[in-house]
Design the sequence.
């Protein structure tokens, strides 16, 4: 078992845990929605994806964002997952991200999706 995210105490008074698939999903979420510079000891960690909610929507922005996200996931989580595809959609102040990946330890394919709005 892995430590759950966000950190919390469970009903038994212990650190909450998560299974591997949930833990990996939480790690992906942290990479996606942490802004570079937000973590003191890891200034390059993250993508700053939340800021793109306010950017004008265009095909070029979507393509650049897909490369940004895929690169960050490979850099920070490449030992845990193999990214197969990243889809980013921004519509009227809502950002939707879909990541298709394989958990390296179990070779299980997963699809995770997040939405963030203004």
Sequence:
């Amino acid at each position: 078992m892995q430590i759950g995210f966000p950190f919390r105490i469970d009903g038994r008074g212990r650190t909450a845990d998560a299974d591997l698939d949930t833990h990996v999903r939480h790690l992906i979420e942290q990479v996606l929605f942490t802004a570079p510079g937000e973590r003191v000891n890891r200034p390059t960690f993250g993508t700053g994806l939340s800021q793109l909610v306010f950017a004008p929507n265009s095909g070029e922005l979507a393509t650049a964002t897909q490369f940004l996200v895929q690169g960050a996931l490979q850099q920070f989580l490449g030992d845990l997952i193999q990214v197969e595809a990243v889809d980013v959609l921004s519509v009227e102040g809502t950002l939707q991200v879909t990541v298709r990946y394989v958990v390296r330890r179990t070779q299980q394919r997963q699809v995770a999706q997040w939405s963030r709005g203004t």
